[in-house]
Amino acid sequence: MLTNNKEKAIGIAFSYLMGLSDDEFYKGLDEHNNGDIAQALTELGVAKYEWDLYVKNKETNKIENKELFMTRAEQVRQQIKELQNSLNENYMALANLLYEAWVERYYLEYGYSSLYEYIETELDIKPRKAAYLISIKKKLLKLGLDWQDVEGIGWRKLGCISSHLNQDNYKELIEKAKNLSLRELSAELSQSVADTDQESKEETHKIRMTIMLDKDSMGIVQTALDEAKHIWNTQSNSEALKNICYEWFMSLEDN
């Protein structure tokens, strides 16, 4: 039989571990264990094991539970960092997150003035790739399509066709993207754009517009035009400018 001092020591330890007062411990001992100190020791052993396990893993627990206390913007930021180095395998999830960061303007919470600045400063992916992914997500939403509708198509092919997709041709272009190589697909789209540009030259009266820019502004505008020409597979500055303005105008409707 244990002495009263030992019983009291057990009570104090058990109470501490289980968050009970001494009185609550002895009351529970009387009500549930009929004063059985051996049973109390067993329960104490279980509680001590759980306590030791908690102490051992508390740092890990903090890391695992940290996300519970993150804002949505912080969660998106962390997930983008985790996915950016596995673009080919996770481009759909990455496109969703980048699109969300753009629409919700999370980059402002990150301390950046633009999405471009955030991507250029903080991520390992190029802004052009991010623009591709965002444009893909945006176009799918506009057409009412899900990712499963383009399953099996890599992000480069989707980036290639996204600016050409509309309600009349999306089924045809998605099927071509599934069956053609990236080079074949790009060549076919380039030829289609060239034919359209030629028809436009023949049918449309052109109006010249002159804009005066300083050196820094010209660098920004020219970079934007070059990126747009690449995305839309055209060599025409006017066509690229038209598409940039159109996309900006449509973004106002989306927001």
Cα end-to-end separation:
76 Å
Strand content: under 5%
Instruction: List unreliable stretches of 5+ residues.
Output: 198-203
Order of helices and strands: HHHHHHHHHHHHH
The best one-word shape is: globular
Helix content: over 70%
**Tally of helical runs:** 13
What is the count of structural domains?
A: 2
User: Main β-sheet: number of strands, strand sense, barrel status?
Assistant: none
Q: Tally the beta strands.
A: 0
What integer is the average pLDDT?
75
Gyration radius, in Å: 31 Å
Tell me what you see in this structure.
With 255 residues, the chain is an all-alpha fold. The chain has two domains: 4-68, no CATH class; 70-254, no CATH class. It is 74% helix and 0% strand. It is globular, with a radius of gyration of 31 Å.
Summarize the structure.
By secondary structure, the protein is mainly alpha-helical. Helices cover 74% and strands 0% of the residues. The protein has 2 domains: 4-68, no CATH class; 70-254, no CATH class.
Q: What structural keywords apply?
A:
globular; 2 domains; single chain; mainly alpha; 255 residues
Can you lay out the helices and strands and say which pair or pack?
Layout (H helix, E strand, L loop, with lengths): L3 H15 L3 H11 L4 H30 L5 H12 L3 H17 L2 H4 L5 H8 L4 H17 L11 H8 L7 H10 L2 H22 L11 H17 L5 H18 L1
Helix pairs in contact: 1-2, 1-3, 4-5, 5-8, 8-9, 9-11, 12-13
